Every structure is written in structure tokens, then in C-alpha cells.
Amino acid sequence: DGAPVDSAPTCKVAKGKAPKGKPSKDTAPTSQKKKDAQFDQEIETAGSGASLTFPMQCSALRIGGHVVIKGQPCKIIDMTTSKTGKHGHAKVSLTGTNIFTAKKLEDMSPSTHNMDVPNIKRDEYTLINVDDGFLTFMKADGDTKEDVKVPEGELGEKLVEDFDAGKDLLVTVLSAMGIEAAISYKEAPKGNDK
Known about the structure:
4-stranded antiparallel beta sheet
């Protein structure tokens, strides 16, 4: 018992003496504080929407919610929990559909583990042009947005047809994990209607 007590003061004395030309122990914590402050500053300047996903415990997920399955943002359509024996953990089996392609995906995970949930944003824009397979929108701040493709299938055909007929359209754009897609549209309300 006496040896560890005697060695502790010896270590402190050794740390306190700095060899010639080397910084003392007092400068190390200061430089670490500067690094911590710089790291904290970087975190503070990042926007609230900077992350594409956020973690959520598997057991907290619900049908109708969203989850990332095999790297794709999905809406949960089915979920079952099963016990796997005397000392096993509960497992959650998830079935979801990709929110952009409607492709069905499945995954299984222990209920205590975290899964990524995509940050999903839904915006409405005024359609001002359709050109070369892309939609041009007017954003609320007056800028234009030209990087969303015309949706495939019947939705895209009807959208282009209604736009060519001279209708003012509001298009709903869904964005998640760096992907954007027009998912629906409606005719813009007329300003002079009473």
C-alpha cells in the first residue's frame, strides 16, 4: 500500500520541472483550451440543418415515421419486434419504402441500437419555367432554383401539360440526404378571388 502513495508525489514533481527550452506544464492546458475553443466555435457556426441524419433508438421508431435503410431515406410501413432466446436481445425488423422511388427495403437491428433518421424538408415553390427536363422555381426570397428534375411518369406529364396550358402552379419539393424531388403540385390560388 505504501508504494503507490510514495510514487504519486514523485510523478507530480517530475511533471512540474520542465527541461530547459521546453514549455512548462502550464502551457499545455492553455493550448488545449485554445483547441477546445476552436472546436466549439466550429460546432457553433454549423447550421441547424447541417446534418443529413440524426440517430434514434430502434425501439423508438414508429410506423409512418422515417429511417435510413441501406443508405436510403425510407418511410416505415411495417415493424415487428421479436425476442431471440434466453439471453438474446430483442430485434426489430423494419420494412420501409424509399420516399423518392417507392422501392421496398427491409432491415433488422437490435432494439437497443441507434438507427439513422433522415432530416426531411418539404418546401413549396412557384413554378416559372420547364426547360430541358428541369423545373425552374421562384423562391420566397426572389431567387430562382433550377436543379430539380421533372418528375417521371404521370405526375411529370400532367405537371408539364398544366404548365404549358398557362396555369400558375405551386410545386411541393421533398428534400432528404442531399436528394431533392418534386412530389406533388397544385394550382396556385388566384390573388383577386374573394
